[in-house]
Amino acid sequence: MTSAEKTSPNNNANDSTLANFIWKNADDLWGDFKHVEFGKIILPFTLLRRLECVLEPTRDAVHDTIRAMTDKPIDLEMVLSQVTGFPFYNASEYSLATLGGTRTRANLEDYIAKFSSNARVIFEQFDFLNTIARMDRAGLLYRICQNFAAIDLHPSVVPDRVMSNVYEHLIRRFGAEVNEAAEDFMTPRDVVHLAIEILLDPDDHLFEENPGLIRTMYDPTCGTGGFLTDGMDHVDALRDRFKIAPTLVPYGQELEPETHAVALTSMLLRTLQSDPGRDLSKNIKLGSTLSSDQHGAERFHYCVSNPPFGKPWAKDQDAVVKEHSEKGFDGRFGPKLPRISDGSMLFLQHLVAKFESPERGGGRGVIVLSGSPLFNGGAGSGESEIRRYLLEHDFVEAIIALPTEIFFRTGIGTYLWALSNKKPEHRQNKVQLIDATNHFIAMRKNEGNKRKQIGPDQIREIVEMYSAFEPTKESRIFDYREFGYRRIKVLRPLRMALHINQEGLDRLQEEKAWGKLTEEQQAAWEKVILPLFGRTCAYGWAEDFCGSAPEMEASIGKVTKAFIKAFINAFGERDPEGDIVLDKDGDPVPDDQLTDYENVPLNQDIHDYLAQEVLPHAPDAWIDESYADDYDGQVGLVGYEINFNRYFYEYQPPRDLHEIDADLKAIEAEIREILDEVTE
Fold it and tell me: Would you kindly state where each structural domain of the chain is located, as residue ranges?
């Protein structure tokens, strides 16, 4: 009896149990393969069995068709796809159960080779043929094939949503084995469901009002395709409500070949009621979205993404910088570029750039981000300019703070950004912040760092808050300008006196301008300076003194501006009580050491702010009018940040000291009791 037969689950098994069952094959791989290789064996076998189960009911019909159509001038691929009812087929006589124990490798290679090209590419991306050869040499191939042949993975037994969970468990499992960041490959299903509800729920009425409506959905970091399949499920659920079913056409792009292969499999098994023969896997592209957008000029009604948190974009830098400099706002990265250490906000810009135009129905988007895109970078930085672009162009509908500890490999706070280029009138120029951090249920068993789950009830609560668009304790409504500020440069005058002493002379002799003098010139300068020791002079005296010095000692020669500057640097000392230093035009010279910056709310005049907040403490301060914004030309750099916690902070008064003291005494008593028991 095989290990699969010993542990075969029933059809009602949950996804975790099914994944564990599939993973039991690792028991057979021990000793011959390393941990890091388990996933590359188990995952493609799982996909193979899934495809096989789908094709099983039409296997005989496919073979009959092949025999009947041989040597006839007909597009056999089209005919076979019609026979299977899916955009793929397999022409082999073999299955996992019938490969045999003597020529298993050759038969399995034949089996794989006779898949249609759109299915065969799945296994090519796993380099599956080399894996098969290694398993054959290890004497494991037949056993593993038999194990998987015992599993029924037909969609009627294991629906797409459950299968997605299985992929999630498997990827997390083998990702953890090799210490890889599994969150790069997948999004927890509860987060997926919430994101899709936020994305699609507001438009359910459009499907109702427009029978047979066709919409597109795009995920530029699609991983295994979880967002896309969940979105299709959402729209498919509306079929019973309408005479003509609505349609959601999926598109995506994925960087990693292996997860891309999983997404291809999912799409091969999906059909559109309006176009049953369409191969949706052709819409899922492979490659880096940032440096090579495989969907080019295409635009979409719905966009959704969970890009990697805090990942550098150095590999995409050349292409991104080129697009930014050459295309500007006609490309995807118009405003500015973020720091190289985190590409999250590049995906944010990309998502908005892929929205369908408002004239063609507009676009909506949801993206999962960490907290840093809310506030990283000051005024004028790439991050701030991206926020500015999104807010001033009214793309941001809502930002939802999610519970911590809901991802598998990180416990950090995460946020859903809901975006649109066609806001309803009541949302225009407004941003809704939702604190959903307390909307979760504790998990019975942790899955890595995931200790909390956003259950169906919690999803409904969050969606209702979003839909209601009303100010509550957990929902706040803001004019987008409330997140903006103008960073002004505040100057103060230089107040300096010249103290002629030995210390100053020593500093002068270290200046570069002094080193350029001849020994005779240096001696002459010392001769005219030494009698002045102990004097304190005004700033303006230095230039007059240096200009007249050759008259006192002819060997000094011509006095350069560089020497005068060195003289002031050496003998000058800041004096808060001294006279203000003026330039040649009679204007105050700013003191670099006293320069300060102030962030003035956008809704406040900068001069009023100066009068109220600065001048009472520094009466001689003024605003640097040359420090201006590149885009609006006004004084001060515009910046935007969303300090989420500030808007939901609730003051908690400290506990009464007597209460704290009582608790401490109680703890001390408990410790004494324990110590007494130990010492007895």
Answer: 3-175, 181-483, 496-574
Compute the distance between CA of residue 582 and CA of residue 464 in angstroms, rounded to an integer.
63
Q: Which amino acid is at 321?
A: V
**Which pLDDT band, with edges at 50, 70 and 90, does 238 fall under?**
confident
Four-point Cα dihedral 111, 115, 119, 122, nearest 10:
30
Q: Nearest Cα to 302, choosing from 343, 253, 361?
A: 361
Chain segment 120-164, per-residue pLDDT in tens: 999 999 999 999 999 999 999 999 999 999 999 999 998 887 888
Q: What is the pLDDT of residues 277-336, one digit of tens each?
A: 899 999 999 999 999 999 998 999 999 999 988 899 999 999 999 999 999 999 999 999
Three-point CA angle 383, 296, 364, nearest 5°:
60
Q: For residues 497 and 573, is the Cβ–Cβ distance under 8 A?
A: yes
CATH classification for the domain delimited by 181-483, as one of 2.30.180.10, 3.40.50.150, 1.10.730.10, 3.40.50.720 = 3.40.50.150
3-state secondary structure at position 344: helix
**Residues near 163 by Cβ (< 8 Å), separated by ≥ 6?**
15, 50, 153, 155, 266
At residue 15, does pLDDT exceed 70?
A: no
> Mean pLDDT score of the chain, rounded to an integer?
89
Closest C-alpha to 214, from 361, 377, 402: 361
What sign has the CA pseudo-torsion 11, 16, 22, 26?
A: negative
Strand partners, 49: none
Question: What percentage of residues in the chain have a pLDDT greater than 70?
Answer: 94
